[in-house]
Amino acid sequence: MKKGKVKASVTFAISNEFEAVSLPKSPFGGFWIEENLTSSSLEAFLKAVILELKQRRIAFIRVIQPPKVYEPKTDLINYLLFKEGFIQERILSHQFFVGKKKIKKLVQKEHAKSQKKAKDEGLTIQVGHIQNFSFLDQVRSWNQSRGYQIGFEDARIINQVSEFPDRYFLITFVKDKRAIAHSLCNTVLPGSLYYFLSAIDPKSTLKNVGDLILFTLFQLAAELKVSFIDLGSSENEVGVNHNLMFFKSRFSNEISNKISWTLKL
């Protein structure tokens, strides 16, 4: 902090086992630079954080550094973390669509075709804040029947939505009064929209539902006037989900990595 202004920040949760994590049960935490800092100033801040944690008898540090699209200085931060002895524990590659004007342009271009597709298929598209959580059971059931790994906890989502109800949006496709698809997204940070949970009823015979879901996501992003959409990572239990990455590549124009760093003190 200088002259009352925060220049850089990091938030940790400290466990009973004296582990400091930034941040647990969140998409990421990490170091954030509020204003331009020199590399030497940022290095000094990092060293000061490590020293403070040592003095608090912390034995282990984990930092989940966000992709560069969220924090432009992430490459420099990752470099300095490495130089301080942090070890890369995990890397997830996120695909993004970046650019407020580009989002708006894509929506304008594809709107008529999307509307016709939904009408021809007899689909009702519902978009809004979450009113109840029954959709989670359907998401789990549909994804399990497809053999997908279940990577979410109901209680965690319910708690997060209850705490920040205005940040979460649910997209639901209905046909013949029955839900056939759900997609959950949220504004992790102002100016962003994060697409992180989606499922399609395997019994549905409709084609290209995934395309319609993402286009509806883009429509929501345009309405919210966000600067970018985070389509998340594409992995399964055996490694990279190349099919999912290819699908998302049709709706993305940027790739950036989220890296988890660890350090034993």
UniProtKB/TrEMBL annotation:
InterPro entries: Acyl_CoA_acyltransferase. The lineage of its organism: Bacteria, Pseudomonadati, Bacteroidota, Cytophagia, Cytophagales. This is Uncharacterized protein. It comes from the Bacteria.
